[in-house]
From TrEMBL:
Family: Belongs to the D-isomer specific 2-hydroxyacid dehydrogenase family.
Keywords annotated in UniProt: NAD, Oxidoreductase
Gene3D superfamilies, per the entry: NAD(P)-binding Rossmann-like Domain
A GO term for molecular function: NAD binding
Organism classification: Bacteria, Bacillati, Actinomycetota, Actinomycetes, Kitasatosporales
The protein's name: 2-hydroxyacid dehydrogenase
Limits of the D-isomer specific 2-hydroxyacid dehydrogenase catalytic domain: 53-341
One Pfam family it belongs to: 2-Hacid_dh_C
Domain D-isomer specific 2-hydroxyacid dehydrogenase NAD-binding: 131-310
Length: 342
């Protein structure tokens, strides 16, 4: 905390969490000197940068900006051992995202730097996007749009035949793998559509929207659509592979707007190519950006593919900046931090 001294903050934003949003939010919390810095997106947005992940490659730029600063607010800034060692005045790092994956937490502890994050800032946006992906895949909306708007063809009208028409959510058995901040919102929306919602999450207890299912295998056997909402851990990596996809009824649909490695992409492609799955909708991938040689491109007529946009809404950016600024305010006032990991 500041003991009454002036606080110098570096707002290292980017083209989504604008530095100006951070500065504006800080202005509602405390008087402080703010230096704005705009970091570019990393060349490989979700790959490793030094010993942290999902960060930009702007270590030198960040070190220069942090000279004499006590606080860093950022989304993608690479807070590595090197950055922490070069910035002895730094005492607080607040990351504008659901987890500080761009921060070396062990190094932060050694340097006595508090690290906070912004949980839940994109839960509503991701839940809405997930339902949008599901509807698009079930009713083949992107394919029909492409035929008419881009190719000038009315051939999409064949989707108005029994053989080619899609599924509707009302009375449809939909299985949710995970019931956290996003999954619980998706469940509520699907219940409003009249879907028969089932949930598998061994870590969530208490009342849920939908029917709790005891095992993942049971969920898969009973679902026509599954949507993934689990956190990516060593336990959940590759959670849905060839064996699991084979348990789904023929013609099922898979939706993943959580994390790419939850799903075995090769097994998914095999299931789509064989016709066992009728469609899939993906916003996240094993490798990002999606490689040009990915098998998914050849299966585009059965896919809805978006480039990791689930958490991208203006409200998310504004909310993340506000949550981060509130943490800075608590730290400056000597109050207990709400979302601190070190």
């Amino acid at each position: 905390m500041t003991n009454g001294n002036s606080v110098r903050v570096v707002a290292a934003g980017d083209h989504f969490i604008l530095p100006s949003l951070i500065t504006e939010a800080l202005g509602h919390q405390l008087p402080c000197e703010v230096d704005e810095l705009t970091l570019g997106w990393p060349l490989a947005p979700f790959g490793p940068v030094a010993e942290v992940t999902e960060a930009s490659d702007a270590e030198d730029e960040l070190i220069d900006a942090l000279a004499g600063a006590q606080v860093l607010v950022t989304q993608m800034g690479p807070v590595t051992e090197r950055v922490l060692g070069a910035c002895p005045d730094l005492r607080l790092v607040v990351v504008c995202r659901g987890g500080p994956v761009n921060v070396n937490l062990d190094a932060a502890k050694r340097h006595d730097v508090r690290v906070c994050y912004a949980p839940g800032r994109n839960a509503a946006a991701t839940a809405e996007f997930t339902v949008g992906l599901m509807l698009a895949a079930l009713r083949r909306i992107p394919q029909a749009h492409d035929l008419l708007a881009r190719q000038g063809s009315w051939e999409g009208a064949t989707y108005y035949t029994y053989e080619h028409s899609g599924l509707e959510l009302e009375d449809l058995p939909v299985g949710l793998v995970g019931y956290g901040a996003v999954g619980s919102r998706v469940a509520r929306v699907l219940c409003a559509f009249g879907a028969r919602v089932m949930v598998f999450d061994p870590y969530v207890h208490g009342e849920i929207h939908g029917l709790r299912v005891a095992s993942l295998d049971e969920l898969l056997r009973r679902s026509r659509v599954i949507t993934l909402h689990a956190r990516l851990t060593a336990e959940t990596q590759g959670l849905i592979g060839a064996r699991e996809l084979a348990l789904l009824p023929p013609g099922s649909v898979v939706v993943n707007a959580a994390r790419g490695p939850l799903l075995d992409e090769e097994a998914l492609c095999d299931a789509l190519a064989s016709g066992h799955l009728s469609a899939a909708a993906l916003d996240t991938y094993l490798r990002e950006p999606l490689p040009p040689d990915s098998r998914l491109h050849a299966l585009a007529d059965r896919l809805v593919l978006t480039p990791h946009l689930g958490g991208a809404s203006r409200a998310v950016a504004e909310k993340a900046a506000r949550i981060a600024a509130e943490e800075v305010g608590r730290w400056a006032r000597g109050e207990q931090l709400a979302h601190c990991l070190t």
